[in-house]
User: What shape does this take?
Amino acid sequence: MIETALKALFILLYATFVGFMFMGIIRIVTARIHRRVGPPIYQPILDTIKLLSKKSNITHGLIYDFGILYAVGATILAVMFIPLGSIGVLRAYGDLILITFLLEIPMLGIMFAAMSSGNPYAGIGAQRALLTLLAIQVPLGFAIVALAEFYGTFSTYEIVMAQQTMGWSIFHFPLLLAAIAYDLVLQAMFGKEPFDIMIAPGEISLGPMVEFGGKHMGLLQIQHAIALFAETLFFANIFLGGGVVTAFSSSILNTIAGLAVLLVKQVAVLLIATFMGAIFPRFTIDQAAKFYWKWPTIIAALGAVLASL
Amino acid sequence: MAEEVKASWSKGEEIVRMLLEKAPYAEGTVRRERRLEFKVPADRIVDFLRTAKANGFELLLQITAVDWLKEGEIELVYQLFSISHGTHAMVKTRLPRDEARISTVMDIYPVAETYERDAHEFFKVTFEGNPKLEMPWILEDEDREVGVSHRKDFDMLGYVKRKYKLLDRFDEDKENYVI
Amino acid sequence: MVTQEELIREARENGMELLPLEKDTYELFFGPQHMATENYSLILKMDGHRVVKAIANPGFLHRGFEKLAEYRPWHTNIALLLRICVPEPDVPEAIYSMAVDELMGWEVPERAQWIRTTVLEMARVSAYLFWMMGLSFKLGVYTAGQWAAAYRERFMALFEELTGARVYHIYTIPGGVRRDIPGDKWLRQLRDTVEYIKDKLKDFDNLVFENYITYRRLEGIGVMDKKFALNEGVTGPNLRATGVPYDVRRADPYLLYPELDFEVPVLKEGDALARALVRRFEFEQDLYILEQLLDMGPPSGPYKVDHPSLKALPRFRVPAGDAFAHVEATKGDFGAYVVSDGGNKPYRVQIRGPSIAHGIRVIEQLLVGARLADVPVILMSLDNCPPDIDR
Amino acid sequence: MVDWRLYEPLINFARKRSMWIVAFCTGCGGIEMPPLMTSRYDLERFGMMPNPAPRMADLFLITGYVTPKTLKRIIITYEMQPDPKYVLAHGSCPLNGGIYWDAYNAIKHLDKYIPVDVAIAGCMPRPEAVMDGIKKIMDLIETGKADGWKRYKENYEYYKKNQDELFGEGWREKTARRWIPWLMGREKKREEE
Amino acid sequence: MKMESVKIAPEEKVRKKPSFLKPWMSLKYLFKKPVTIKIPYEETQIAEKYRGFHTLNWKTCIGCNMCGQICPARAIEMTWIEGEKRPHPKIDYGRCTFCQFCVDVCPTNALGHVEHYILTTEWKDEELELFDWVPLPEEMVRKFSDYRHPLAKIEKYEDGRVKYVLRDGSEFEFKILGYGLKPPAAAKPKPAAKSAEKKEEPNPGEKKE
Assistant: This one.
């Protein structure tokens, strides 16, 4: 029991820290493409400390506070279900659909909070977030179905284990299609261009986040960091073979090596998203929905059909 | 030298002649190359601008109001530009200062609505038929109530002193200035 | 807290008609504290994410230039009036100076004309870079925006060398310019910069003007037709994007433009994409014009009129009369109407910013039916500059 | 109970290195903001970036002159920002009117209406000068001397009196309701027909 | 709607082709050197004759008030200083727009300008005094090469004495007799009126806070 609790704590701390580093990496890489120096890598941590140390805090009622906690809680729960190399707390129950669901519902929590603030921009942002959520469901579902059909299981851990013998998922053609679709979906989950429609600073002033300040925003930053970690981790697990290393005799070394391998894969996923974000303008919401229901859906559906053959 | 240019721009003379034929109530001159000037009585301005637009003056660039305090008149200058003739034209008209009313030219040049709002705000010229004159424009309500305007008799410095109290941070009485 | 009944009662007492907004619409105050509008406000009535009605609310930058100019000596007004157009402050300087030159009957020396033309073109290029930055930021390609802002700095440095200030140059004065070109080194630098920007334009093409998503975003929004544009007093690239080849540099030539060779881009569609492409092409043409000017080289001679009244500026007087001068700015037709009564201060100065036509009625009509996401893009594709409107 | 004073240096460091700026170009100095924020001078090295929402912003740059119409929005925006918040006034105009010393529509002394922490000279200030001002604010934050937000709370009556004197009582409500009849106008006509 | 001599660009030159792949080309800048100038750690090059703070040659200034007349912001006030025959301009950087028309019109070239442009103060009345000064001679300003305002502090005394403390510690002291074009109250006979006027001056600063 204590071991499980310790593991959970470790995962949480690791996820938060690495998530913040990921945020820093995104900012630095974006800055380099912009031809500038960019902030130090620990900048998101400073931002969060500053936000949490704000002296005044505005709240708009119970739902407003609850929504954020809900988002943070759901994200933490999602991290627990995803196998992190050989460490895992609830990985045995790590159902693909469950994790996908848990990765999406933080958006709902933020939306609750945003809606209760009464700011029209937050309302528009929440609408857009909802539509984005709706739009990504279809390709996401097909991608998951493709995975499940191919491996014959819904368990993430089993998929990771299966990849150790069969090779990474993306080396199989049907799953490559699913991976491409899923990567496009990830772009929306990260909130990066061309699908950062719900934030859209130039249009609706950060959308749902417009009313958050101080500690609420600080918590959201933490949530964002963990979510970043969880999403990349999930992708690395189901498509890039996860981080199972058995080369060393010591289990601790194996674990560390597994984490390192995972980290490299996660950063790769992150970089692709960053690159795409740096060079594409933002879609409008109807264009994004149409896009998701067209290309990624077709690709993912093709993958699912091929996988089931 | 300027005289020569004026004389040599025969195309301008032609345009003026053509316009004056259709609008005999106006006076027109060629100032220099690509600068025409018309003087129109205030009650015929709509007719004149309609004629002008039909004859190639497509753009209304601005409506300028000039307050001639000594004459007691407000001069409205309609800056037209003709793309087809490649010339600019000022259409000038004069209104009495105390009762500055003129009919709007919105139905000819819709953009005049904006310019008229501007002229109404700062020169208190009433353009009959413009529905948006009373709409908030640049000034705030409190300024409008006090009567801020660009007319010559508006005492700007006095108003500024009343409104902002202290004028100078470092020196209370910078009245010592001579300009 | 005021209840709704109280509000309604109060409104009725004050003669305000307060009707409940239709059920499925809501108001949105778009600006001035907003990234897409620079201190300019739009009041939108929204139905979902479509705009039902838009009202422009200018005046946040109003300082009463036209009144202030009546209190300051002729030359000093340069330092004041250039604040009307912040992205390209040389344009108000130039038009005011041209109008005063006409009133004085001065023929500006050739060297001064060359410098003025060069400064105007440099201002155009840097303003276009600024516009590119704005468009990219509003579209969400932050990369291009960051580059554009960085490359614009090269022109700022050149301006600094030439005029002694980065943004507010206060350089063009009636009768010529304030100081001479700092030397051949500056000309070489200018040529290098032009080459550099020309090279970098390819990157902008790749990233913005040939980007698939840019096309999806810009196509078919904010469509104007020729008749509408002419009626609404639209000028500049916005008018050319509807198919009217009106360019002040050709229609009413000034300075050295009759001798220069450049093409006027004209497109038919009149949507945001056409406006963006027209602007992009003009940017290229401006670089070409700068090259021609450099090939021409500055003519020798004085850089300002030799006139005794320029010795004692506070007592500089202008004969009575009025004059209108206008130039082609990146935003459109920028004009000044100057009236003198023979005194040492102008009797009346009116500056005609292009945005007064673009920013009020055109915006209000183009936005009806647009998506909320298109609002910043339409604003930017019209290149609306609020200080022009407010003055 | 944790003694937060122990963490004060860390918190102050975080505050000084992560100032988010309200995206509000109040005047002509706004044109020098893009070079400062973007690749050329890149303020993000210090963790500063323009933030569209005032609720999470710390630093308010008053970029140049302020007209009464803008000042109303500035005050509202300033009050929306969470404490601690800092104000940096650019150039001559907020200090003593600048070139608009006799303009009927420009504020002469900004500090009568909202507290200002740092003043910089210039018209308009070069990016380097703005950077110097920001550096100064950073120093003040580190030593805990950037107390504009405290002053605003303590002397609220003074500021409110000045604001009300300029705009008239009840200006907030008046400004909010100003446009309602014009938003409705067309609907009413349609109903009548 | 034809205009003579307009060269219209062919449409295909204006138009571009949308592409999905070309934007990826811009990723090459990931590995290029940033263009950032790292202020404040890196010095930027200021152009020669950049319009910065003023300098005044106290010996050649004839107090003609040409600068005061041309100033668009009325930032210049003629100041009578003890020991000087003619008044000298006092420049208020709370108003100055750095147009330097005053330098252009100065008949004896006494008023000049340097490239220095940085003046940053806390918003406190005693520090804001720095914004209002009688310019110092050029060599005293040029001494500092970091483009900052030369003064560290301005101390004002009751009797009109003003002490400028430069940033290197040296001091510059003089006594202000009064303002305006005319000699203040006939200079000598009525010192009482003068001091009354001067007492008024530091007061508003103290009153406010």
